[in-house]
Task: structure prediction
Amino acid sequence: MIERIITDINKALDAEAYMAALSLVLTLPDICAKAEYGNTTKDNKRHYIQWYDEYIGQYEKSPTGPGDIEMPYLSGEVIYQLRCSVLHQGNPNIDQNQIDEERCKIDRFVLIVEKKKPYDIYADSISVEMSPSSSTRKYEVNIRRLSKIITLVVEKYYRDNKEKFTFFDYEILDWDKEIERFNVLEGENSNE
Result:
């Protein structure tokens, strides 16, 4: 199922169906968290955030030194908030009041849509505007970049942990292929 979802995400991006791609890609950490930690509904949020931070979020942090401003980053909390907003409200935004980590309380969140580039390289933009009385944290996330990062990490996680995905119990029937197969059989029977 993981492969099929990733294929559908890539098809959506190729068709420039950005919200469809984003909606699907935000479900992947849910699936991997279930594989990693089991099916405990009351802990879904914590497990989503934990899985995302362990496999992706920690690598999204900007390095900081003494005196540096801690820039916001795509933490598990941010991605979980985006997931909830997109999937439950159709709103591609985040609620900073639902984010505990101070540096990730983003004041202005922007999604970037961009046509496919030959080298498949895309960038986000992060800024903190400071004035004597306030600061504004802005994060612009490129849907293609976010999708690429999550799908690549999930593909590797799935390859390395296939035994944890035993909860997939489904059948997808491709009706068009079934009709084709039936027509071929019908044709063979009529030639006899």
